[in-house]
Amino acid sequence: MKTNLILSASLAAISLFVLSACQQSQPATEGATQQSAAAQKPTGSMTTSSVPITDTEPTSLEVNSYQMNITKDGFVPKELTVKVGATVVFVNSDDAQHWPASGPHPVHTFCPGLDAKVALNKGETFEFTFDKAEVCPIHDHLNPGTTGTITVVE
Protein backbone atom coordinates (compact mmCIF):
# COMPACT_ATOMS: atom_id res chain seq x y z
CA MET A 1 0.00 0.00 0.00
CA LYS A 2 2.83 2.42 0.91
CA THR A 3 4.56 1.62 -2.38
CA ASN A 4 1.42 2.48 -4.37
CA LEU A 5 1.00 5.76 -2.46
CA ILE A 6 4.63 6.77 -3.06
CA LEU A 7 4.36 5.79 -6.74
CA SER A 8 1.14 7.81 -7.13
CA ALA A 9 2.69 10.88 -5.48
CA SER A 10 5.79 10.58 -7.67
CA LEU A 11 3.72 10.31 -10.85
CA ALA A 12 1.65 13.33 -9.81
CA ALA A 13 4.79 15.41 -9.21
CA ILE A 14 6.28 14.38 -12.56
CA SER A 15 3.01 15.19 -14.34
CA LEU A 16 2.90 18.66 -12.79
CA PHE A 17 6.53 19.30 -13.80
CA VAL A 18 5.91 18.20 -17.41
CA LEU A 19 2.67 20.20 -17.64
CA SER A 20 4.39 23.30 -16.27
CA ALA A 21 7.30 22.96 -18.71
CA CYS A 22 4.92 22.50 -21.65
CA GLN A 23 2.86 25.56 -20.77
CA GLN A 24 5.97 27.76 -20.48
CA SER A 25 7.43 26.66 -23.80
CA GLN A 26 4.38 27.12 -26.03
CA PRO A 27 5.33 29.74 -28.66
CA ALA A 28 2.93 32.35 -29.91
CA THR A 29 2.16 32.35 -33.60
CA GLU A 30 5.06 33.68 -35.63
CA GLY A 31 3.19 36.63 -37.12
CA ALA A 32 1.81 37.73 -33.76
CA THR A 33 5.24 37.41 -32.14
CA GLN A 34 6.90 39.55 -34.80
CA GLN A 35 4.21 42.24 -34.70
CA SER A 36 3.99 42.50 -30.92
CA ALA A 37 7.78 42.34 -30.45
CA ALA A 38 8.31 45.09 -33.00
CA ALA A 39 5.63 47.26 -31.40
CA GLN A 40 6.79 46.77 -27.82
CA LYS A 41 10.58 46.32 -28.05
CA PRO A 42 12.38 49.29 -26.52
CA THR A 43 16.00 49.93 -27.39
CA GLY A 44 18.19 49.04 -24.43
CA SER A 45 15.95 47.64 -21.76
CA MET A 46 16.31 45.33 -18.79
CA THR A 47 13.69 42.76 -17.92
CA THR A 48 13.31 39.67 -15.83
CA SER A 49 12.59 37.01 -18.38
CA SER A 50 11.87 33.36 -18.87
CA VAL A 51 14.57 33.04 -21.53
CA PRO A 52 16.15 29.63 -21.03
CA ILE A 53 19.59 29.84 -19.47
CA THR A 54 22.09 27.83 -21.49
CA ASP A 55 25.79 27.99 -22.29
CA THR A 56 25.31 27.34 -25.99
CA GLU A 57 25.95 29.26 -29.18
CA PRO A 58 23.63 32.19 -29.98
CA THR A 59 20.01 31.27 -30.12
CA SER A 60 17.67 32.93 -32.58
CA LEU A 61 14.79 34.01 -30.33
CA GLU A 62 12.67 35.44 -33.14
CA VAL A 63 13.39 36.82 -36.57
CA ASN A 64 16.48 39.03 -36.29
CA SER A 65 16.91 38.49 -32.55
CA TYR A 66 19.82 36.71 -30.87
CA GLN A 67 20.74 35.57 -27.37
CA MET A 68 24.18 36.20 -25.85
CA ASN A 69 24.75 34.53 -22.51
CA ILE A 70 26.98 35.91 -19.79
CA THR A 71 28.53 33.03 -17.88
CA LYS A 72 31.26 32.66 -15.27
CA ASP A 73 33.62 32.18 -18.25
CA GLY A 74 32.46 35.29 -20.16
CA PHE A 75 30.21 36.06 -23.10
CA VAL A 76 28.86 33.09 -25.08
CA PRO A 77 29.45 33.50 -27.93
CA LYS A 78 32.45 35.80 -27.50
CA GLU A 79 31.95 37.20 -31.02
CA LEU A 80 28.62 37.66 -32.80
CA THR A 81 27.76 39.12 -36.22
CA VAL A 82 24.24 40.48 -36.75
CA LYS A 83 22.46 42.66 -39.31
CA VAL A 84 21.31 46.24 -38.75
CA GLY A 85 17.98 46.11 -36.92
CA ALA A 86 18.85 42.95 -35.00
CA THR A 87 18.20 42.72 -31.29
CA VAL A 88 20.64 40.96 -28.99
CA VAL A 89 19.26 39.72 -25.69
CA PHE A 90 21.99 39.46 -23.05
CA VAL A 91 21.08 36.79 -20.48
CA ASN A 92 22.87 36.47 -17.15
CA SER A 93 23.41 32.71 -16.98
CA ASP A 94 25.62 32.88 -13.90
CA ASP A 95 24.96 33.01 -10.17
CA ALA A 96 27.10 36.18 -9.95
CA GLN A 97 25.83 39.55 -11.16
CA HIS A 98 26.93 40.84 -14.59
CA TRP A 99 26.49 44.20 -16.33
CA PRO A 100 26.75 44.14 -20.14
CA ALA A 101 27.93 47.37 -21.75
CA SER A 102 29.83 48.65 -24.78
CA GLY A 103 33.44 49.71 -24.56
CA PRO A 104 35.43 51.42 -23.44
CA HIS A 105 35.23 50.82 -19.72
CA PRO A 106 33.97 52.72 -17.74
CA VAL A 107 32.27 55.24 -20.08
CA HIS A 108 30.56 52.89 -22.60
CA THR A 109 30.61 55.38 -25.50
CA PHE A 110 31.58 53.22 -28.52
CA CYS A 111 28.00 52.07 -29.13
CA PRO A 112 25.76 54.59 -27.34
CA GLY A 113 22.87 53.02 -25.47
CA LEU A 114 24.45 49.57 -25.21
CA ASP A 115 24.63 49.72 -21.42
CA ALA A 116 22.38 47.85 -19.01
CA LYS A 117 23.14 50.61 -16.43
CA VAL A 118 22.53 48.09 -13.63
CA ALA A 119 23.84 44.69 -12.63
CA LEU A 120 21.76 41.76 -13.85
CA ASN A 121 21.00 38.90 -11.48
CA LYS A 122 20.81 35.32 -12.70
CA GLY A 123 18.06 34.96 -15.31
CA GLU A 124 17.63 38.70 -15.88
CA THR A 125 18.08 40.10 -19.36
CA PHE A 126 19.07 43.27 -21.16
CA GLU A 127 18.19 43.71 -24.80
CA PHE A 128 19.63 46.12 -27.31
CA THR A 129 18.62 46.78 -30.93
CA PHE A 130 21.44 47.81 -33.27
CA ASP A 131 20.44 50.61 -35.65
CA LYS A 132 23.65 51.07 -37.68
CA ALA A 133 26.54 49.07 -39.06
CA GLU A 134 29.47 49.20 -36.63
CA VAL A 135 31.77 47.09 -34.49
CA CYS A 136 30.73 47.13 -30.84
CA PRO A 137 33.27 45.93 -28.32
CA ILE A 138 31.42 44.79 -25.20
CA HIS A 139 32.46 44.04 -21.65
CA ASP A 140 31.09 43.19 -18.23
CA HIS A 141 31.20 46.50 -16.33
CA LEU A 142 31.61 44.57 -13.06
CA ASN A 143 34.54 42.59 -14.50
CA PRO A 144 36.08 44.71 -17.32
CA GLY A 145 38.43 41.91 -18.38
CA THR A 146 35.41 39.92 -19.59
CA THR A 147 35.00 41.09 -23.18
CA GLY A 148 33.38 40.24 -26.49
CA THR A 149 32.52 41.81 -29.84
CA ILE A 150 29.29 42.34 -31.74
CA THR A 151 29.79 43.22 -35.40
CA VAL A 152 26.77 44.83 -37.04
CA VAL A 153 26.56 44.60 -40.86
CA GLU A 154 24.14 45.91 -43.49
Short description:
With 154 residues, the protein is α+β, with helices and mostly antiparallel strands. The chain has helices at residues 2-24, 30-40; strands spanning 45-48, 60-62, 65-71, 74-76, 79-83, 87-92, 100-102, 124-129, 134-140, 143-153. Helix content is 22%, strand content 36%.
What does this structure look like?
By secondary structure, the chain is an alpha+beta fold. It has two domains: 1-40; 43-153, Cupredoxins -  blue copper proteins (Immunoglobulin-like). 22% of the residues lie in helices and 36% in strands. The chain is built from two helices and ten strands, in the order ααββββββββββ. It has helices at residues 2-24, 30-40, and strands at residues 45-48, 60-62, 65-71, 74-76, 79-83, 87-92, 100-102, 124-129, 134-140, 143-153. Strands 1, 2, 3, 4, 6 and 8 form a six-stranded mixed β-sheet that branches. Strand 3 (65-71) and strand 4 form a beta hairpin.
Tags for this model:
disordered N terminus; alpha+beta; 2 helices; Immunoglobulin-like; 36% strand; 154 residues; 22% helix; six-stranded mixed beta sheet; four-stranded mixed beta sheet; globular; single chain
Number of helices: 2
Looking at how many chains there are and whether they match, the oligomeric state comes to single chain
Secondary-structure-based class equals alpha+beta
Average residue-wise pLDDT = 75
List the domain count as a whole number.
2
CATH-derived topology of the largest domain: Immunoglobulin-like
Number of E strands: 10
Q: What is the helix fraction of residues, given as a range?
A: 10-25%
CATH class of the largest domain: Mainly Beta
Sheet of most strands? 6 strands, mixed
SSE run:
HHEEEEEEEEEE
- From the spread of the alpha carbons, the general shape counts as globular
Percent of residues in beta strands:
35-45%
Which architecture of the largest domain does the CATH hierarchy give at level 2?
Answer: Sandwich
